[in-house]
Amino acid sequence: MTMAIYAPLRFVAVGDSFTEGVGDTDLRLPNDCRGWADRVAEELARHRPQTQYANLALRGRRLKQIVAEQLEPGLAMAPTLVSFHAGGNDLLGARLDMRLLVRGFEDAVARIAQSGSQVLLFTEYNVPLSPVLEPLKLRTAVFNKHIRRISAAYGTLLVDHWCFEKYQDRRMWAPDRLHMSGIGHEYMAKKVLEVLGAPHSLGSPVLGTLQPRSRAEIMADDAAWLRRDVAPWLSRRFRGVSSGDHLSARWPALMPVVLPERLGTSAEPVRI
């Protein structure tokens, strides 16, 4: 299945840090990031200049928050395409009711589908956090099984992230090991455009041979990761706050796509 043809295209992205673009740093843009959704919108706009785009996604959001804060505003824009990614932060929680998560996810997909918009879903990836957290892989696999079922039931488009072998390379991930790097986001944009059946100019990353690391290098990297990323994340979880609490949606209303060549080189972010 590919994307139905609409003119003009109204693309609304909702979700968490995956869709916000965390890991793909660009200081010229709101929230200092770009991401796969921006890249997809850019490619769509190059071939269909009337394309409009909104991105309501925010880092740290769980499924219930995404539904409560983003779904109605997104659907009120009468989008023709809605990308929906949610549940990743729920999977990382110490306590998880998988049945409740799946039910909430399916209800959200049903609401989007009933609006008449084309729906774009994603499976989750087994992010390379740490061998200690390997049990998360089982949760992710179970959730993905339900996402594939829901996608088939509602006739959505599906980007099966779990199956993309290139993401086994650590260079596809940001230093925090949880979010894709700029290269990872660009490749994700390519895969999304392929699922949409849309023309684009994006290629696959050419990374070269990954140099092996010594045990000492691996241990030093793990220690830095624990200090820089894991400790602050655990602190936020303990305090019940999120890294996205002080942020707003990057592109909160449908607007013409801002192409990167029009941004210039200034570090001053685009104002919306």
Automatic annotation (TrEMBL):
Where's the SGNH hydrolase-type esterase domain? Answer: 13-186
**Would you say which domain of life the source belongs to?**
Bacteria
One Pfam annotation reads Lipase_GDSL_2
Species:
Arthrobacter gyeryongensis
Any transmembrane segments, and where? Answer: none
| Record keyword Hydrolase present | yes
Q: Which UniProt keywords apply?
A: Hydrolase
| Record-linked InterPro entries | GDSL_Rv0518-like, SGNH_hydro, SGNH_hydro_sf
- Please report the name of this protein according to its UniProt entry: SGNH/GDSL hydrolase family protein
Entry GO MF terms: hydrolase activity
